[in-house]
Amino acid sequence: MISSQDNSTETLHAFETQWTRNIKFDLLVALEPATLICNCALVYFLIADQNLRQTLDYHTLLGLLIVNLVTNLIELPRIIHYLRISIVTPQTDLNCNI
After folding, report:
1. Smallest Cα–Cα separation from 26: which of 66, 84, 90?
2. The domain containing residue 69 runs over which residues?
3. CA pair distance 57, 1, nearest whole angstrom
4. Residue from 69, 70, 89 nearest 79 by CA
5. 39-75 per-position pLDDT tens digit
6. pTM reported for the whole predicted model
7. How far is CA 72 from CA 14, 28, 76, 84, in A?
8. 90 falls within a domain
9. Residue 62 lies in a domain
10. Is residue 13 scored above 60 in pLDDT?
11. Domain for residue 96, yes or no?
12. Which of 17, 62, 76, 92 has its CA 20 to 30 A from that of 3?
């Protein structure tokens, strides 16, 4: 462990084993469907209820839920795929930027 008095440029490396990768994969696969269902239900109820649509506070909440939904639909499947095969595919700059 690097102490606060150590002036070296060494960095701590996080070592990931196949065992920890499998645990992450299992957790994400188990929790992703419930996350999508709850997120879609919350977005639907915020849009469907006219009283909530008229309150400005709920517009911010709705925006955050929509961003979270897009993240769950795009980013988490890519992470799950990486954890399953241990390789980023396709290996392009656009894929890394996303």
Report:
1. 84
2. 10-84
3. 45
4. 89
5. 999 999 989 988 888 888 888 899 999 999 999 998 8
6. 0.70
7. 25, 11, 5, 17
8. no
9. yes
10. no
11. no
12. 17
